[in-house]
């Protein structure tokens, strides 16, 4: 086949040979261009995807570490019934509970007629650090720098 191509090429005039040679070079250059440019675009795209993946991996590892820290510092299970613990903690903080209504074994709804907001927030923070979570909280201004409170509490993990 190569001999047939050479015979055909040599049968052309010198001017036609230059034109066929120039056309062949143009085809080879076009082929190389359309081969290299997509490869370089694909390489750039792969580098960008790799960078995104590395960032996502780092963010995921940070989240995993945060979850592990939260699991390690999780509050111990309550050592007394939730209702009794809430009554004792409110009494220790100086809050007079107007009602305590157990809602099953895992929730307690309480009402406080009058509480100073700063002391209330501190008491709630103390409850949360000991494993009692606020499920619902509603406050009403009493007009005398105190608030009336209705809240539902639950033990952490329940």
Q: What this model shows, in words?
A:
This protein is of the alpha+beta class. Helix content is 59%, strand content 22%. The longest helix is centred in the N-terminal third of the chain and has 59 residues, at 14-72. The radius of gyration is 39 Å and the shape is rod-shaped. It starts with a helix and ends with a strand. The mean pLDDT is 87.
Q: From the helix content, strand content and strand pairing, which structural class follows?
A: alpha+beta
Output mean pLDDT: 87
- Strand line-up in the sheet with most strands: 1-2-4-3
Shape: rod-shaped
Count every helix, treating DSSP H or I runs of 4 or more residues as helices. 4
Count of individual beta strands: 4
Q: What proportion of the residues form beta strands (DSSP E)?
A: 15-25%
Q: Which blocks of ≥5 consecutive residues have pLDDT under 50?
A: none
What is the end-to-end distance?
A: 83 Å
Q: Could you describe the largest sheet, including whether it forms a barrel?
A: 4 strands, antiparallel
Radius of gyration: 39 Å
What series of H and E elements makes up the topology?
A: HHHEEHEE
Q: State the share of residues found in helices, binned by percent.
A: 55-70%
């Amino acid at each position: 086949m190569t001999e047939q191509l050479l015979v055909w090429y040599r049968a052309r005039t010198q001017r036609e040979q230059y034109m066929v040679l120039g056309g062949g070079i143009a085809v080879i250059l076009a082929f190389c261009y359309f081969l290299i440019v997509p490869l370089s675009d694909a390489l750039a795209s792969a580098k960008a995807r790799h960078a995104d993946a590395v960032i996502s991996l780092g963010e995921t590892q940070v989240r995993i570490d945060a979850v592990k820290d939260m699991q390690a510092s999780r509050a111990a299970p309550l050592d007394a019934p939730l209702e009794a613990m809430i009554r004792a903690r409110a009494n220790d903080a100086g809050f007079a509970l107007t009602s305590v209504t157990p809602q099953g074994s895992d929730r307690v709804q309480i009402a406080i007629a009058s509480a100073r907001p700063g002391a209330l927030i501190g008491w709630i923070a103390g409850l949360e650090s000991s494993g009692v979570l606020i499920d619902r909280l509603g406050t009403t201004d009493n007009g005398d720098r105190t608030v009336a409170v209705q809240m539902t509490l639950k033990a952490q993990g329940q």
